[in-house]
UniProtKB/TrEMBL annotation:
<keyword id="KW-0732">Signal</keyword>
<keyword id="KW-1133">Transmembrane helix</keyword>
<feature type="transmembrane region" description="Helical">
    <location>
        <begin position="51"/>
        <end position="75"/>
    </location>
</feature>
<protein>
    <submittedName>
        <fullName>Uncharacterized protein</fullName>
    </submittedName>
</protein>
<keyword id="KW-0472">Membrane</keyword>
<keyword id="KW-0812">Transmembrane</keyword>
<feature type="signal peptide">
    <location>
        <begin position="1"/>
        <end position="23"/>
    </location>
</feature>
Amino acid sequence: MRFGKISLAAVAAAALVSAPVMAESLSPSVKAVAASKVKRAGAATKEESKLGGGSGVIVAVLAAVAVIGGIVIAAGNDDDAPTSP
């Protein structure tokens, strides 16, 4: 039973490792892509985006609060009484 689990895990790991390699071999070659002469063009804009910028600070503060809260909850369990009578 143990050998079966180990061999199944090895087959699953080999499948996960080989999947990107198989997908890469099916994609077009670099030479074909370079020979196509297709260039990407961006759209012209009149003004800058108003979405970029200060949201990174908000996300960092919320992440810090979540980490500190998790530490307080994990360390704050001082109930040493047994659950069963």
